[in-house]
Amino acid sequence: MNPNSQTQPDADRTETARRRYNRVARTYDLEQGLLEKVGLGRLRRTLWSWLGPGSPLEVGVGTGASFRDYPRDRKLTAIDLSEEMLRRAEKRADREGVDVDLRVMDAQRMDFPDASFDSAVSCCVFCSVPDPLLGLSEVRRVLRPGGQALFLEHVRSENAVFGRLMDLVNPMTVRMSGANINRRTVENIRLAGFEVVREEKHMFGLVRLVEARRPEAS
Fold it and tell me: Considering the entire predicted model, what is its pTM?
């Protein structure tokens, strides 16, 4: 895929994703609570500890689970497709005293100029973006040359049998939660034009921490 292509998001699939996350926003934190306890919270903290200097963007902020990990010496910008998720994020930002500019925005078509940010962070987002390559290419576009992109994502198993099982179950998980469990997100990051500079495998390789860079000459 050409990272500079001007493909448009699929309006129907994007609207379906928006409605789905608006619907689950009320119970989202409760549903994610167990995952936080078994390791997601720890991995998120690790990811944010990798954040470099400059102006950061969080893509897919959800209800603001990352707020506790934000650097307190900088104002962040954060986006999400779901208005209901952002309403809860706004309340959390007020409670926790977080300085963040929250915006309703589609990761597949961001309203930022090229090269707007020094870094971008996303946590369990590109499993549910309707067109992950389009979304990742947008992240690349809004980063300055040499900019840092940090990802926490679950991915398809490298085990042939378990990977095939994930493929079979995936349609049901998408209908229930909106998340694809069988995406090869690290490969997609490379296809979108990033250079992967660090990758850690966790939870039997099903969860990855990735640090990538937008190439300087792009």
Answer: 0.92
Alpha helices in 99-202 (DSSP H): 132-142, 160-177, 185-191
CA distance 211 to 120: 10
Q: What angle do CA 201, 43, 19 make, to 5 degrees?
A: 100
Q: Is there a contact between 166 and 118 (Cβ–Cβ < 8 Å)?
A: no
Domains of the chain: total = 1
Q: How much is the average pLDDT of 140-167?
A: 95
Range of the domain at 128: 11-154+183-213
Identify the DSSP state of 158.
Answer: S
Question: Is 33 inside any structural domain?
Answer: yes
Return the pLDDT at 4.
Answer: 43
pLDDT over 70 at 3, yes or no: no
Count of positions (residues) in the chain = 218
Tokens of 213: 């860079």
